[in-house]
Amino acid sequence: MTGETVLEVENLKTHFFTKAGVAKAVDGVSFSLRKGEVLGLVGESGSGKTVTGFSLMGLVDAPGRIVEGSIRLAGQDLVGRREEEWRKLRGSRIAMIFQDPMMTLNPVLRIDTQMIEAIRAHAGVSREAARERAREALARVGIPAPDERLEAYPHQFSGGMRQRVAIAIALLNEPDVIVADEPTTALDVTIQAQILYEVQKLCAESGLAMIWITHDLAVVGGLADRIAVMYAGRIVEEGPVGEVLDAPAHPYTLGLVGSVPSHNRRGERLAQIPGMTPSLLSLPAGCTFAQRCPRATSVCAGMPELAFSGGGADARAVRCHHPHVDLAAAAAGPAGDVR
């Protein structure tokens, strides 16, 4: 990791204007991403992580829109860009890998046709040069016999192979940032492990920065450098992945870690977070997790700020009045106070 910041998101708010009211899907999200870094964006369904990813790609359609904040890619703000400008950026500067590879692949076109078009849409190269680049991209993600695979159709691939092709397409134009929205969720663990290894290797070798959106803490623990935990449209904890998973500061993060089967003794009931996520149409004025939190007090009627400790790649942050870890003490000493 070079330390060079390639993406800065500040106070991003993406709301959906419906007949039932305004759903605050993303409500003040801020983070940065450095070259070669993998940021894990985690949270349960409805936390806002996928909408955050779509916002970064300019893919939020009516009734949703970005109402506030900035998305700076290499210093240039993307918010408010026209669709024509977004089309030039997507695939060339910032790309996305979807959970379903068929959102990327056209079922009636051969793989080579799709990959060549993706290259020539952004680069003035010949078809022969584009085809060679496509072949190299397939080889990079571990697809055997890439020349033969280029002539195949998507239905002739397994689910894991289709996802590898989707990753290869995202890499074609060497973007600065890739947003990956749970791309290995539907794959078996063996194929998942292979793809995660290849992605991690690509980021380390090429300096590619990646946001990996998932609900799977095990995947994030083995892949990401940093982790940002989202709840009800906001980031509630952020920091180096090992520190956050080993010593969670926010009660919600602790609940997520505790609900992983490997963290429970054999034969015991799985730990659960009580209650339900509040409706995005009527979020409480204070801490949105207070109604589910065993540490909540009257002070939680006020919204806690995201408090930071440390700096650079070692910075940690938590949005909680009663965190499990005193981040200031943790930054000053070898270990935090886990209560």
Helix-strand blueprint:
Blueprint: E1 5-18, E2 21-34, E3 38-42, H1 49-56, E4 64-73, E5 76-77, H2 83-89, E6 94-97, H3 111-120, H4 127-140, H5 146-150, H6 159-171, E7 177-181, H7 189-206, E8 209-214, H8 217-223, E9 226-231, E10 234-240, H9 241-246, H10 251-258, E11 307-309, E12 316-318, H11 327-332
Parallel strand pairs: 3-8, 3-9, 6-7, 7-8
Antiparallel strand pairs: 1-2, 1-4, 4-5, 9-10, 10-12, 11-12
Please name the defining characteristics of this protein.
339 residues, 2 domains, Rossmann fold, alpha/beta, 12 strands
Strand content: 15-25%
Please give the CATH class of the largest domain: Alpha Beta
Low confidence ranges: 335-339
Rg measurement, Å: 21 Å
CATH architecture of the largest domain: 3-Layer(aba) Sandwich
Number of strands: 12
Class by helix and strand content?
alpha/beta
Could you please describe the fold and organization of this structure?
The structure is a single chain. With 339 residues, this protein is α/β, with parallel strands linked by helices. Helix content is 30%, strand content 23%. The chain has 2 domains: 5-93 and 175-332, P-loop containing nucleotide triphosphate hydrolases (Rossmann fold); 108-174, no CATH class. The strands form 2 sheets. It has an 8-stranded mixed β-sheet, sandwiched between helices. Helix 3 crosses helix 4 and helix 4 packs across helix 6 (159-171). Residues 335-339 have low confidence and may be disordered.
